[in-house]
Design goal:
The chain is an alpha/beta fold. It is built from 8 helices and 12 strands.
């Protein structure tokens, strides 16, 4: 069973979720505002977080960005904000899923189980192999044809984020939020600089990239 952190200022909802999921054997922890949620995440290292968006002290979008910047814990937004734009903002902040209120407890249970299963699979995949390219998360190193690639910490975080979810399109905003704590203060061209550096280091022919592909106007894909 898993350690689940619920971050929501609705105390009645907290209680309902606690009763439902603790009955299934999960360990339930609760936070009533964004800052408390951040502190409990650091202290408890939960296996999944259920996160509201509109909360006192710090909104859920900012909480999600800060958590994902430090550690890749599955996060599911549980919010009354149900427009397509709200969902996009939540996913761009780094959330793994987005459930709107009112919701079915059974549906939330299935979504949580799916994310926990995916997280377990990712923990087993700390070493990614793509033909002649090997990326080792534990060592924070990458190898091309058996030769160590000299990557900066930022370059490694970028390639790991892309390669750990191959064939998945990442928007410019999503990658910026992953790499920088305050992406709005960073020149967006800096992301292109890091992408170019990575291509020069991991691609046999950077001008005809086979791993890091650009989807014009949308973002980047790591091709497996």
């Amino acid at each position: 069973m898993a350690r689940i952190l619920i971050v929501d200022d609705d105390l009645s909802l907290q209680t309902s979720l606690e009763l439902y999921f603790s009955a299934q054997g999960h360990e339930i922890y609760k936070a009533s505002n964004g800052l408390q949620g951040l502190e409990m995440t650091k202290a408890l290292k939960p296996e999944i977080i259920i996160l509201d968006i509109i909360m006192p002290k710090m909104n859920g979008l900012e909480v999600c960005k800060r958590i994902k910047k430090k550690i890749n814990i599955p996060i599911i937004f549980l919010s009354a904000k149900d427009s397509a734009e709200d969902r996009i903002k939540g996913l761009e902040a780094g959330a793994d899923d987005y459930v709107t209120k009112p919701f079915s407890l059974k549906e939330l249970e299935l979504r949580i189980n799916a994310r926990l299963k995916q997280s377990d699979a990712n923990k087993e995949r700390k070493r990614l192999v793509f033909n002649d390219l090997v990326i080792d998360y534990n060592q924070k190193q990458a190898f091309l044809k058996g030769t160590l690639i000299n990557l900066t910490p930022m370059e490694f975080e970028l390639i790991w984020h892309l390669a750990s979810q191959p064939n998945n399109l990442f928007s410019h905003k999503e990658l910026m939020a992953k790499l920088w704590e305050n992406p709005e203060k960073v020149n967006p061209n800096l992301l292109h600089v890091y992408i170019r550096r990575l291509r020069n280091k991991i691609e046999s022919n950077p001008k005809k990239a086979k791993y890091i592909l650009n989807v014009w106007g949308q973002g980047y894909i790591f091709k497996a």
